[in-house]
Amino acid sequence: MRYVLLGIFVLLLIPPSALAAQASPSFVAARSLLAASSSPGNAYVAGVSVVLTAPVAGDLSAVGGTIVIAAPVVGDALLFAGSINSRASVAGDLRAVGGSVNIKESVAGDIIAFGYSVQNSGRASGSTFIVGVDTAVTHGASGPVTIYGNNVSLAGDFAGDVTAFMSGRLTLAASTTIRGTLSYEAPDKAFIPASATIVGGVTYTNASYLPDVGTSRILALVSIGFFLLARILGALILAGLLAGLFPKLAKTIVNRAFAPRLRSILLTMLLGFAIFVVTPVLFILLALTLVGIGLAFLLLIAYALIVLLALVYAGILLGSMLARRFARRETVLWRDGVFGMLALSLIALLPFIGLFVVFLLTTFSAGALALTFFHFVFPRDEETPKML
């Protein structure tokens, strides 16, 4: 099915007249291609650099990094490249897609161009449709012109209507003639020289692409909502992983919260508070000395890690406490971390009280983590290393 859809897409890109061509088509592909011999029928070329210096009796389809057309094309031209330079006439339609599109000679059919920069100094006998950031049509057109872009420049004699949609400015050169109607949408009105002639009149529509105050507030609220949602989801996943991968560590911290003596709980919270307050001061003092800059950097990394772990284990602590209270279960599971972090995130939304509860749980978790790591590094008995 994939190859069938790919074949249909390729057939749609091939100009219709290619199917009816009498002469056999030519297929050429090379890294650097210089086509100096004429093609009796349709020509299909591909390469990093493609330069066509011989006429093509049929349609031309070219794909490359850079394409230069220096010989006339009797049929249609279909071009895909990073840089396109059409220096010869095209008797049919010209369709070009590239980063930079430069059309210098006349086109007997329609012009359809998509690119970052589109410069059209060739006159199209048919319609002109251009989409580009910076667009310039400097030799007019015999048919209607439609342009979508940022900045648009017009010059020459336009026999039909000109329609433009811009996020920037529209510029008309002196002595520009539009025998139809000029209709454009832009944030500001265009400067139309006194020497310019617009037979059908001008229709201007103000189109400001900057959001108003109400829209800006809505966008800000939506952005904050997405940020909070992403933060909460990340915290839930991290809490679930830590609780599931290191259940003994989580159980050790929870057991400290259920210590029989209140004095032990308060000392643990005091230790966590000291870590949060003293560490930044020590970091600043070390950073003031040339020798201590490296140590200060390592201390900053350790401080950021302990703050992150304290916040995550605060949620795990809350979830495990709820599991002991309502489920009568002392084993710490991964879902305790997820539910606890979710409950902690909801509590944090409460003004004043919520932040105070989060602060208490976080300082206790920081102190409990510090004591656990200390006893792990400096064990006092054989059971201490098994806590992790």
TrEMBL record:
<keyword id="KW-0472">Membrane</keyword>
<keyword id="KW-0812">Transmembrane</keyword>
<feature type="domain" description="DUF8173">
    <location>
        <begin position="224"/>
        <end position="369"/>
    </location>
</feature>
<feature type="transmembrane region" description="Helical">
    <location>
        <begin position="265"/>
        <end position="288"/>
    </location>
</feature>
<feature type="transmembrane region" description="Helical">
    <location>
        <begin position="294"/>
        <end position="320"/>
    </location>
</feature>
<feature type="signal peptide">
    <location>
        <begin position="1"/>
        <end position="20"/>
    </location>
</feature>
<feature type="transmembrane region" description="Helical">
    <location>
        <begin position="218"/>
        <end position="245"/>
    </location>
</feature>
<feature type="transmembrane region" description="Helical">
    <location>
        <begin position="356"/>
        <end position="378"/>
    </location>
</feature>
<keyword id="KW-1133">Transmembrane helix</keyword>
<dbReference type="InterPro" id="IPR058486">
    <property type="entry name" value="DUF8173"/>
</dbReference>
<keyword id="KW-0732">Signal</keyword>
<feature type="transmembrane region" description="Helical">
    <location>
        <begin position="332"/>
        <end position="350"/>
    </location>
</feature>
<dbReference type="Pfam" id="PF26514">
    <property type="entry name" value="DUF8173"/>
</dbReference>
<protein>
    <recommendedName>
        <fullName>DUF8173 domain-containing protein</fullName>
    </recommendedName>
</protein>
